[in-house]
Each structure stands twice: as C-alpha cells, then as structure tokens.
Specification:
Elements: H1 2-32, H2 34-40, E1 45-50, E2 57-58, E3 64-76, H3 78-82, H4 88-95, H5 99-112, E4 118-124, H6 126-133, E5 142-151, H7 158-161, E6 164-166, H8 169-174, E7 183-185, H9 188-192, H10 194-197, E8 202-208, E9 214-217, E10 233-235, H11 239-248, E11 254-260, E12 265-272, H12 285-294, H13 303-306, H14 316-325, E13 343-345, E14 349-351, H15 362-368, H16 371-383, H17 388-400, H18 423-430, H19 453-465, E15 468-469, E16 475-478, E17 492-493, H20 501-513, E18 530-536, E19 544-551, E20 558-564, H21 574-587, H22 593-601
Parallel strand pairs: 2-10
Antiparallel strand pairs: 1-8, 2-3, 3-4, 3-5, 6-7, 8-9, 10-16, 11-12, 11-20, 13-14, 15-17, 18-19, 19-20
C-alpha cells in the first residue's frame, strides 16, 4: 500500500494544479480582464454615434448667416426590432406615418443592414421627440439620436450657402465618415467646405435593458469619445449687400455678381429667382425639394455660376483691348457708321447700329456702343495675320487670359466654363471657308460666345485693375486657419499691357457721364462709375439687359456684373440695378430713392 501512496500524492497534486489553473483563468476572465465582459455585454449595449455640430457660417463683417438648432433623428437597428412584437399602429400614430410607410422604411433599413443603425425618421423637433421618448421603451430597436439642424437667420444668400442632402449608399462606401441617413453639403459653401464644416463624430456606449431603456454609460464612459464641432467659416459676402441685391431682383430672372477687385473676394452673388433656404431643412425637406425642382422658373439653378449667356456689347471692351495690344488701332482711329445698316459686308449683309454722331473713335464708340466701329476693327484685326486660323487662335488666346471659357478654379464645386470655341469648331462648321465676316457677330459679343455672370464680373475686375485679377472666391478665413488657398491670393495677369486700359476706362466713364452715354441713369453724385451697357439678342423673346461696372474710377472698391433676362436695353434694368448696388455698398444708403422704387416695384413679364 505504501508504494501507491507516492503515486496518489503525485496524481492528486496534478489534479489540484490543473484545477488551480482553471480557477485562475476563470478569475482572470470574469474579474480582471474586462474585454470578455465587454464582449458578453454586446447584446445589451447601444453604440450611440454622436453627430458633430456643423460649423457656423458668417459674412465678411461677422454677421451670422448660418446657425444650428437642436433636433432629433429616430434611429433603428432592424435586428432588434425583428426579435420583438410591437404595437405598429400606436407607433405610426406617434410619428405620424402610415403603416405602409412604416413597412417601406423598415425594409429599406433592413436592406442597408440588419445590425447597423440607420435613420428611420429624420429631423424630429424637440417637442415631437419629447412626446415619442415617453413611449419609446415599448419599441425595441428604436432610439433617438440628438443632432443639430441648420437655421438661416436672414433667409437669404441661398445660392451662396447651398443646402444639405442625404448621402447615398455610394458615398457611405467611399467615405467611412458617413453612415446611412447622414447629411452632407450638396451645393454652395456647404458643399465646397464640407470637410471643414462637418467636424468629427464621437461615440457613446450605453447600457440598455430588455425594454430598450437607457441604463446609463457603459463602464462610466471609459470607451466613449467626444465629437468635435466643425470649423467656423468667415465668408467674403456682405450680407446687407446680398439682401439688397435679392430685393432688387425680385420678380426678375437673372444674376448679379459683385467682386472686390483688390482681392477677388465675392461681395454678393445673386441668382434670381431664389427661394427660402429654410425650405430645405426638416422633415419636409424632400417634399419641398421636389416642388422647387419642378418649378418652371428653376429657383434651384444658380444662374450666377452656371447660367451661360451672350455677353453682348460689354464684350466690345475686350475686343478693343485686343486691337490696342495688337496695334490694329489707336484711340484716335475713326470709323464711320451708316446708322441702321451699320457695318455692311458681302452681298446685302450688315450688322445694324443706331443713329449717332459720326465718325467715332474708340472712346466715342464705347460711350455710344457703336456696332460698326467694333465690326470694322474686328475685320481689320483679322487682315493683319497671314491666315484666319492664326488670327483667331491669337484672339482666342487673348480672350482666354480674361478667365473666359474657363471655370477659373474658384472655390465653388459647381459652375460652367461658358463657351469660347476653338478655331477647329469653325473649320468643321464651315469646312475651312470662313473669315472675320463669317463670325462678325463675335465682334459685338454675340454668336457662339457665351459667358457666365461671374466671368463678366471678373472681366470688370480686370478692367478696374488695369490688367490683372485674383480668382473670385467665397472664403475669407476659417477658425482652424487664417490662411486661404494660395490660388486665391496670387495675381493672374491677362495678356494686355496695362497702358492700353486707359482709353477703354475713359470710354466706360463716358458711358455714365457722357452727353451720349448709354447708361446716364447709373450716375451717382460724387462717385465716378465706369461701366458698359449690353443688350444681348434673344430669339425666344425680349432681349437681355446687361451692365458691367466698377467704382470708384481710382482705387476701385467694387466691380459688378448685372444680367437681367428679357430686360431689353442694358440701360432699362441692368445699369440702374448696378448703380443702386454700388450706391448701397459705397455710401451705405440710397441716393436715388425714386429709381430704387421703380426697380423694386416693377417686374418683368417673361415670355
């Protein structure tokens, strides 16, 4: 028996040792190592994503133009709901939706993910959320997520600010920041500076009971992370000027763009008709968007950036500069004009003009907007070159240097380059048989040439600066950096030497103050305005009214372009609107209240 006592001791010791190992491991798992506890509690934990507060937006003088108000999203985790029976009718009554809508929303959420959270109903008000919250324990799988919702104190600058839209599935896959139901910028500043404005999300892990009731933070918030608010943006917009411009453009279709020539900062960017930005927030956002998108007047369309129009007579200024640069004319050269027949070419072909004193030189031609002068000049320019192709390519190069035919790389994500055809376009169209007279309409800003209002305003800024510009931009600075893109702080020069601008500017000044000036109604006491009217032919109805200007003549503070569709002569609508805008910006008041009353209280009947 004694010989087995040793073996018994050894075996017993082994069993005790193994048991001790198991007990130690269990103690470590259950008491010391919290990872296992974390995993075991996954079925009663809610991962509550904390949406970051979107950054605020101010105008150039620190006036708040976009703020936030508290709201709630009703979230769903489909897997939790499928495992329980709920009173669907009561739920639908609480959230004011039909049973069919409930089923549709649930199916969409389940298709997205059965275990990931997604938005079931967006943007509940604080009052609605409070009522629902009292009954939410009866509906497992649902919970409220606190968010912020945009608010627009001034109800203006809609096309500048832009709007938010729900991200699609593709975006959630491309950018892991977003989950189903999140909003991101679609247009304007909201889209251009989305990454600055959106901030960084946080995470709270909460314990919930079997009734989906909040039981507090998991492990006292040890694993929680805080959200970080988006950057505050200071824009270049003068909100008072913006509001005034929108008031002037009420019941009219067109655009106004005003730029500070010395910096390229956009002071006002108006597209008319516009809409109340508060229509595209809250639960009725989608419904209102559909209505706006179906509106025949296209209020969602940003005409200032995307509208492409023939520039009309304002383009004579660019052609005049090119002719001076190429030594085709001097400011003393004269051309005659035969009134209604204007410039005649070919057999029974002519570009009409109007009765005025003649002959005219460059300065006179700008003052009275003589078509014949600029057509003769255009023809003479072409004859300087060995071929029409060489002449046009050189002209194209000059025009391109004004930012025409280009997006200009501003900080908006949408826009149009306009239309500036290459010589190959005309070669294909006319099978190589064309000359200056074939495209003579481009001498006076018609034909195939199309510009956007922001390009017209930039052209005005180049004239104000006598040959250079800064890329027009909307951001002045942000809370995370006082620096802006160097693309916006670098001078861009056009191809025309600065000395050639003086006669052009003299002509522009006489447009406003000259005896025969075409925009005498734009005159403001004690302010030297240099401008040019334009009237663009419109085959679909009344001609378009156009005016570009800058002021004061020395050390210009504002350059502006106004385009009024179906407005007739440039002096009828565009030049008085520009004059009022300049008066408002420089004088902070309106000198000609009678003119103001006429513009505000009259509308244009569209075709």
């Amino acid at each position: 028996m004694k010989r087995y006592e040793g073996r018994y001791t050894v075996v017993t010791s082994i069993f005790l040792f193994v048991a001790l190992i198991f007990l130690s491991k269990l103690f470590y798992i259950q008491v010391i190592n919290e990872n296992y506890k974390f995993s075991a509690n996954n079925n009663v934990l809610r991962y509550d994503v904390q949406q970051a507060v979107r950054g605020l937006i101010y105008d150039r003088d620190s006036t708040l133009i976009v703020s936030n108000v508290p709201a709630y999203d009703l979230m769903i985790v489909p897997r939790e709901l499928r495992q329980k029976l709920i009173d669907t009718l009561k739920f639908c009554q609480l959230v004011n939706i039909s049973k069919e809508k409930f089923v549709d929303k649930f199916n969409k959420a389940f298709k997205y993910s059965s275990y990931k959270e997604s938005v079931f109903i967006k943007h509940l008000s604080k009052e609605n959320a409070s009522t629902l919250g009292e009954h939410l324990y009866q509906f497992p799988g649902f919970y409220l997520r606190k968010i912020t919702m945009r608010e627009y104190p001034s109800n203006t600058a809609t096309h500048v600010i832009g709007y938010l839209g729900e991200v699609n599935l593709k975006k959630t896959k491309e950018d892991k920041f977003y989950t189903k139901g999140d909003l991101s910028g679609v247009s304007g500043v909201e889209a251009a500076y989305e990454e600055k404005l959106r901030g960084h999300k946080g995470m709270r892990i909460k314990l919930v009971d079997v009734h989906n009731r909040d039981q507090g933070k998991f492990q006292s918030g040890k694993f929680d992370t805080l959200s970080i608010s988006g950057s505050t943006l200071i824009t270049t917009i003068d909100i008072k000027l913006q509001e005034y411009g929108e008031k002037l453009m009420k019941d009219k279709v067109g655009a106004i763009v005003a730029i500070e020539p010395s910096s390229g900062e956009i002071l006002a960017l108006i597209s008319s008709p516009t809409y109340n930005p508060n229509l595209l927030i809250g639960r009725k956002r989608s419904e209102n968007y559909i209505k706006l998108s179906k509106d025949k007047k296209k209020p969602l369309f940003n005409r200032a950036l995307q509208g492409t129009y023939p520039p009309g007579s304002i383009f004579k200024l660019v052609n005049g500069l090119i002719a001076l640069e190429e030594k085709v004319i001097s400011k003393y050269n004269h051309y005659s004009c035969s009134g209604d027949l204007g410039y005649s070419y070919g057999k029974d072909k002519f570009v009409g003009c109007h009765e005025h004193e003649k002959p005219v030189n460059l300065i006179n031609a700008i003052e009275i907007s003589c078509n014949a002068y600029f057509c003769n000049m255009f023809d003479k320019y072409f004859k300087k070159f060995n071929s029409n192709i060489d002449a046009y390519n050189n002209w194209h190069s000059h025009v391109s240097s004004f930012g025409i035919g280009d997006y200009m790389n501003n900080d908006f994500i949408s826009g149009a380059p306009g239309k500036l055809p290459k010589s190959s376009y005309f070669d294909n169209l006319y099978r190589g048989r064309w000359n200056a007279n074939t495209i003579i309409s481009m001498a006076i800003g018609q034909g195939e040439l199309l510009l956007t209002p922001i390009q017209m305003a930039n052209m005005s800024a180049i004239l104000a600066n006598k040959g250079f510009y800064y890329t027009p931009h909307i951001l002045k600075r942000s809370s995370d950096s006082n620096l802006i893109d160097t693309n916006f702080t670098k001078k861009k020069f056009c191809s025309i030497q600065s000395q050639h601008f003086s006669p052009i500017i003299e002509g522009m000044e006489r447009v406003v103050i000259g005896k025969h000036g075409t925009a005498k109604n734009a005159k403001i006491p004690d302010i030297e305005i240099c401008g040019k009217t334009g009237t663009a032919q419109n085959p679909h109805g009344e001609d378009h009214s156009i005016f570009i200007a800058f002021a004061p003549k020395t050390k210009p503070e504002i350059a502006i372009a106004v385009y009024v569709e179906n407005g007739g002569w440039g002096s009828t609508w565009a030049s008085p609107i520009a004059s009022l805008m300049i008066d408002k910006y420089l004088n902070k008041k309106i000198t000609n209240t009678e003119l103001e009353s006429f513009i505000i209280n009259n509308k244009i009947e569209l075709e």
